[in-house]
Design goal:
Length: 582
């Protein structure tokens, strides 16, 4: 070994081997000895600490250290440790701020519904809030939400609502979650008028109720025998969600099977109201008389309910929404296009409003043409034109195509005859130089309320128009997608029905229930009818005196359906609603 810097004795090695051995030992000595010297000479504060020598990071500021430890308690959901920290902070006269109080209030409100910790959470929660107010620290939305939850847990909805209303004194806007404690407290205690007052305040603040709040109000109205209120909340639910949770489904079953639901009466002009609303609902009140029949079942791919045989609608936006949509598209187009050109198109469309389908010519002509010999496919466009002509009962669609593209086609001898044929049949509208075709075919589709053949997802327009949910609803009803497989055209028409809560002109209701599967045929629906209003009289005739709930799919097998004359009722191939008021 190396001792006191001296080299060890080298064994008897002769020749060049001895030379190499000496060199190697010298190198080892240099590394070990010099490293030791450097280590001894280097100050300790320059050393790189190993993980075992690292000191735990601490906050020198007591306020910051208190907040750090409080946040740790919040993450670990340790209420008792947080309270202990709070008591210590008071003993040490630690200066507290809004963040400290909000963290403590949040933890207390979290445990306010825990049976084992409720008393402790309530006692300290209100103590912390009183301390906060005594220090003249203004609460924010999070503070008020927490104290409202504590108040509701104590059964004091009035104080919870009073706290929400005081937010205005601090120029702070409440959120929906801020109102929830008072609303749910009033609903649970069946204090209907107070709950409706909270709802009115939510509406004044420009906030929208979601499924949990709507269902709470619906159940409250059902439990207090307010049938008209139940009807209105059912429509609010229809506007807010596409399908309901299992919990909501149970609330609806209970309502339709109670005596309070026997309040129906006939309403005139129901069909006109449904058409005006875009299909799927009329909003004119309960229709029919007698007990309700409540079943759970499936809906066939063609939109036919397997329980009652009714055909569900493919729901569109209503007349008011359609008009607003058309005005918005026109307004945006006039900002981006040459005004004279687009107004000329608007005038032309007013005089030629019989089209039932609009075709995005460029989208179809350039489909799958990104190869060396690719170009504008006239044959693809012609195939779509002819297919839509056949499907709409021999009515030509309107093709929107840029004039530069049309001029190039006319100059090609092999295409000229076909293009001239389109023009003779009134198929083409050529957009002028410098224009964007998109505004023309989008406006025409909305204004004429007809189908649109395109694979364009229209993402560029969504954010400029009336909102994604509104736009998606419209697209689902009007867009026709297409593919060409080995030259053969295949159209994907709008769905036969919409997966939304629907109210029929007979007074029945169909409510889709949340489904984990992507296969729509597996989705369960709540089918709610009155005796005599259902197509299949035999299934409901025995339930005149008592409400029937049949759980599980009520669809027959395919063989049984064929024997029972299960008609394939599909929606119209066109998107136009001629019966609508202008």
């Amino acid at each position: 070994m190396i001792c006191n810097g001296n080299l060890p004795r080298i064994p008897a090695i002769k020749g060049i081997g001895r030379v190499f051995a000496v060199l190697i030992l010298k190198q080892i000595f240099r590394v070990l000895y010099l490293g030791k010297v450097v280590s001894m000479a280097t100050p300790s504060h320059h050393q790189n600490p190993t993980p075992s020598t690292k000191k735990k990071k601490t906050h020198k500021n007591p306020e910051a250290n208190f907040l750090y430890e409080l946040n740790s308690c919040s993450k670990s959901k340790d209420l008792k440790a947080a309270i202990s920290l709070y008591d210590s902070a008071l003993s040490n006269n630690t200066r507290l701020n809004q963040s400290h109080f909000n963290t403590l209030l949040y933890l207390c409100s979290t445990f306010a519904t825990d049976p084992d910790s409720k008393d402790l959470a309530l006692r300290y929660g209100f103590r912390v809030f009183d301390h906060m107010m005594a220090l003249n620290i203004h609460p924010n939305e999070a503070s008020i939400t927490s104290i409202a939850r504590l108040s509701a847990a104590k059964g004091d909805g009035d104080y919870a609502f009073e706290m929400v209303k005081k937010l205005g004194d601090y120029q702070v806007s409440p959120r929906l979650r801020t109102y929830e404690p008072a609303l749910f407290c009033f609903c649970q205690k069946l204090e209907a008028e107070k709950a409706y007052e909270v709802e009115d305040d939510i509406d004044k603040m420009g906030l929208s109720l979601e499924e949990p709040q709507i269902v709470a109000l619906l159940k409250l109205s059902a439990d207090t025998w307010r049938g008209e209120r139940v009807y209105n909340y059912l429509h609010k639910l229809r506007r807010s969600v596409r399908w309901v949770s299992e919990e909501t489904c149970k609330v609806l079953e209970d309502w339709f099977c109670c005596k309070a639901s026997e309040i129906g009466s006939d309403v005139g002009s129901v069909k006109e109201a449904i058409l005006r609303n875009g299909g799927g609902w009329h909003g004119l009140g309960w229709i029919g008389e007698g007990k309700w029949v409540v079943k759970k079942g499936n809906v066939e791919p063609n939109g036919r309910c397997c329980c009652c045989g009714e055909q569900l609608d493919c729901v569109d936006i209503d007349d008011v929404e359609t008009e607003k949509f058309a005005l918005s598209v026109a307004g945006l187009a006039l900002e981006r296009e040459v005004k004279a050109n687009f107004r000329e198109f608007q005038d032309w469309l007013e005089k030629n409003a019989d089209y039932e389908a609009i075709v995005d010519g460029a989208n179809i002509g350039l489909y799958q043409q990104n190869f060396a010999e690719g170009g504008f496919s006239v044959l693809q466009l012609d195939a779509v034109i002819k297919e839509m002509y056949t499907r709409s009962g021999n009515k030509w669609p309107l093709v929107i195509l840029h004039n530069k593209r049309v001029r190039a086609l006319l100059e090609n001898p092999s295409h000229r005859k076909l293009v001239e044929e389109w023009m003779a049949n009134g198929v083409l509208y050529t957009t002028p130089h410098g224009s964007n075709d998109d505004w023309y075919w989008l406006y025409a589709t909305v204004k004429l309320r007809c189908l649109l053949v395109t694979n364009d997802e229209m993402r560029d327009h969504i954010f400029e128009l009336l909102g994604s949910s509104f736009f998606l609803k419209w697209k689902e009803r009007h867009q026709v997608r297409y593919t060409f497989l080995k030259g053969a055209l295949k159209l994907q028409m709008p769905p036969a029905y919409s997966i939304v809560i629907q109210e029929s002109e007979k007074g029945s209701w169909h409510v889709p229930i949340v489904c984990e599967s992507d296969e729509e045929s597996l989705r369960s629906w709540l089918c709610i009818t009155r005796p005599g209003g259902c197509e299949d009289e035999g299934k409901t005739g025995s339930t005149m005196e008592t409400c029937e709930i049949v759980n599980g799919p009520c669809c027959k097998s395919s063989e049984n359906r064929n024997n029972e004359k299960c008609d394939d009722k599909t929606t119209s191939m066109t998107g136009k609603r001629k019966e609508r008021s202008p």
